[in-house]
Specification:
Blueprint: H1 18-21, E1 45-49, E2 52-55, H2 56-66, H3 79-105, H4 112-124, H5 129-140, H6 143-165, H7 172-181, E3 187-188, E4 191-200, H8 207-226, H9 230-240, E5 251-256, H10 262-268, E6 280-281, E7 285-295, E8 298-299, H11 302-332, E9 335-337
Antiparallel strand pairs: 1-2, 1-9, 3-8, 4-5, 4-7, 6-7
Length: 339
């Protein structure tokens, strides 16, 4: 039985607080098909942080966590992904050890309640105490080793919450200030609600074939012009249109500029509500469009964008804070990458 060790809350973008850490899954699966690491991997050192060795086994665990689809590839990471996954995983385990040593340097301790809750969660993922103990011995040499790993993970989580997550928080005032300074970014562009009828020809169509498509379009045009409603035009699209939209009555719904072929777009945005175009030639069809409605450009209210804006800003700040903190730790401690 191969089990994944505690997923440390060290990746930027995750909630790293002590309270959140109490909900970290200690193992992700009881039935993983990934093979157990070779014994040699536990002693093969890939990096040292202030003399503390990080093993190939540590690296492999992190690589498997970052590439969870390895089980579908026989426990291996495909070659085209291997180098990037290894680099990211190595950086991750180095950051974890840097953070652990920094937490100890600061004299930080693990809240007893958080440790107790995580240990109970771990036990609850096994059918009995014997299997839980077997896992602890297999992965960490002893139950004490496993408990130390939990404490280590909690220390890392608490430190990174303080130094990264909390410092990446964006206040309401900062959000509103950004919104006010970047209003053009939050404008809804001019848009139109259109239906279309397309009479197609192939890319390599002969002049005769193009003329035949044009003739079909000319036969439909008077009927399209006479259509007074969405339904009437839609019925024509269902009957005559040769593009994929015909099954939806030719309805493209609301579109802004950049979503239609240039010639169609130019003609459509010049039309008034309820009007139908002349025949428009594109690289692959003769097209007739009807504009059902129009909307002018409009400012999107702050309330509608605040949630997604906060997520975007905090994601960017998390990445920046992580880089800054890692650089600070690397300058304080000695890091050697060996393999």
């Amino acid at each position: 039985m191969r089990l994944h060790v505690i997923q440390l809350l060290v990746a930027v973008g995750l909630s790293c607080g002590a309270a959140a850490a109490q909900n970290v899954p200690l193992v992700t699966s009881h039935k993983s098909t990934l093979p157990a690491p070779a014994t040699a991997a536990a002693t093969l050192i890939v990096a040292r942080v202030n003399g503390v060795g990080l093993s190939q086994q540590d690296l492999e665990r992190e690589m498997q966590k970052q590439f969870p689809y390895a089980s579908t590839h026989g426990g291996r990471i495909p070659g085209e992904f291997a180098a990037d996954v290894r680099r990211n995983a190595l950086n991750q385990i180095i950051l974890e050890e840097l953070s652990h040593q920094e937490a100890k340097r600061r004299g930080m301790t693990v809240p007893a309640g958080a440790f107790k809750d995580l240990l109970q969660q771990a036990r609850g993922r096994f059918p009995n105490t014997a299997e839980f103990a077997s896992y602890a011995v297999q992965e960490f040499g002893s139950m004490k080793g496993f408990e130390n790993q939990i404490r280590r993970g909690l220390l890392i989580a608490i430190l990174l919450d303080q130094e990264i997550t909390q410092k990446a928080r964006v206040t309401d005032a900062q959000l509103r200030q950004f919104y006010a300074a970047n209003k053009p970014r939050f404008q809804k562009p001019e848009s139109i609600w259109v239906q279309s009828i397309s009479l197609n020809f192939t890319e390599n169509a002969t002049p005769v074939q193009r003329a035949q498509a044009r003739k079909r379009a000319e036969a439909v045009l008077p009927k399209a012009k006479a259509a007074k409603t969405f339904e009437e035009f839609g019925q024509l699209a269902e009957k005559y249109s040769e593009d994929d939209w015909h099954i939806m009555m030719g309805d493209h719904q609301w579109l802004h500029r950049g979503r239609l072929p240039a010639a169609v777009e130019d003609a459509a945005f010049r039309l008034q509500k309820g009007r139908t175009s002349e025949i428009i030639e594109t690289a692959e069809a003769f097209v007739i469009v009807r504009v059902n409605d129009t909307q002018p450009p409009a400012q999107i209210p702050y309330e509608q964008v605040s949630k997604s804006l906060r997520e975007d800003m905090e994601k960017a700040k998390l990445a920046a804070r992580r880089t800054q903190f890692e650089q600070k730790l690397r300058a304080r401690f000695t890091v050697e990458e060996l393999r």
